[in-house]
Amino acid sequence: MPTVVLMDVSLSMTRPVSLDGSEEFQRKNLAVHGLNMLFEHMASNYRLEFTTLMAFSSLWELLVPFTRDYNALQEALSNLEDYDKTCIESALHGVSNVVQQEWGSACPCQVVLVTDGSLGIGKGSLRHSLLTLKQRGDDKKFPLPFPFPTKLFIMCIANAEELQMTDAMDNLEELLRISGGDGQIFTMEGPLCMKSVQALFGRLIDHAYSPFHAVLHCGNLSSDVQVFPRPEPIVVDEEVEPMPRTVSTDLEIVGFIEIADISSPPVISRHLVLPIAVNKEVDEVGTGTTDELEEEPSASQMAGKSPNFCVLLHGSLKVEGMVALVQLGPEWYGMLYSQADSKKKSNLMMSLFEPGAEPLPWLGKISHLGPISEAAENPYGEDDSKSPFPVQPPVKRSYAQNVTVWIKASGLQTDVQKILRNARKLPDKTQTFYKELNRLRKAALAFGFWELLKVVADLLERECTLLPDSAHPDAAFQLSHAAQQLKLASTGDSQHSAFDHNIVPMHTDFSNTEK
């Protein structure tokens, strides 16, 4: 998940901060100290994260394009210059342009806005931008919400009391709400000093940049891994009392399946799985570059000399063309697979399915899958000529049955016209007439479309009055009988509106059956 760091370099950031027993600092110095702390943390734990640094005042500037070189980011921080007034709207337009140019509109992104809480003055200030939101044309649209998924974190080099003395906090909260609300505002606690700014960025790191360490198990084999980026909690809407579901730190491989059987399943997120402490010997298998993954030397040397299950798993999945089904928690599964980054390099990836016992319908319930050796006969055949998938459902699906569906008005009109055509050919088409009439009646009852029954009844009564003198006497009786039955059904009477009840032809001395 790429990160955009948006640094406020307006004049208000140069306001001095008095530190007891030391030299005088500016708010900008505190912000730089906090960002250096963030970059150092990411260099150790998020080496694969792409990060860009932008500066803004009344205009915005791209200081460092998306990179994994945190030394370049820290060097750019040390060379920041001071500019004029604050214009957050202009900066957000810049973020939108930079992210879309590099990643498009589908890649989720985290934006870290570092400011002192000053909204700017006059036209271009955040206050003015929010007041004129509903008075804009499409050509001057406010940049939020971004066209790509975003988490906005606002880092205020000010304490909450200072922000609440004006309307700054209210405006920043409104900015966060417009962005989609998926983020947070962080303020400094206590006096403005180095210790407070460290605590400020420490809270951001704990919230958004803490590494996710887990243990990957397969039988008696296991390996410590880091999952990148950190899996987000999932809330299942279908539950009576929705609770966030989190990925367990114990990932259990429950089986292996061919790529052709699992195909391209729907997933909610994709993550890179990295073995902890690897070196060149691991890199040759394709888990990543040495510089990106290597930890402290002693851990690296140990990993290089000792077997690593994660590396074995990755190589096996790549060679055999299979995926591993992994349990993430109670009735929640995902899959591990090898994905090529280039011709010479591939990564071990993990995709998360929707929570549930049956996330992929064609596989059936994951808990019902078992090893081929336990089957009475090979489900793939002796020569791999067949497949046990898709699993056939025990009950025939409703969409596989002959049901009436009215998606468009033309479909309903066709069914009504079919009834009227048969009505004009009574008594020769008596059986067909009642068959079509009962089909429409059941569909109307299923949809609660009571008005349709009454309207069709009126149409049948009208057809009865329009019968020519040469018409068979039984036609009038059958039309009147059918109209009366439809009217009774439209009242909701339990006897006549039962779904399984069928209208049968009226027995008369003139009754005739379809030839």
UniProtKB/TrEMBL annotation:
Biological source species: Anabas testudineus (Climbing perch)
InterPro entries: INTS14 (IPR039841), IntS14_b-barrel (IPR045814), IntS14_C (IPR046471), VWF_A (IPR002035), vWFA_dom_sf (IPR036465)
VWFA domain mapped to chain residues: 3-117
Start and end residues of each Integrator complex subunit 14 beta-barrel domain: 209-356
Listed PANTHER family: INTEGRATOR COMPLEX SUBUNIT 14, PTHR13532
GO CC term (a single one): integrator complex
Ranges for domain Integrator complex subunit 14 C-terminal: 404-511
GO molecular function: metal ion binding
Stated family: Belongs to the Integrator subunit 14 family.
Subcellular location, principal: nucleus
Subcellular compartments: Nucleus
Pfam families for this protein: IntS14_b-barrel, IntS14_C, VWA_2
Full protein name: Integrator complex subunit 14
Family matches, as Gene3D superfamilies: von Willebrand factor, type A domain
Biological process according to GO: snRNA 3'-end processing
Highest taxon in the source lineage: Eukaryota
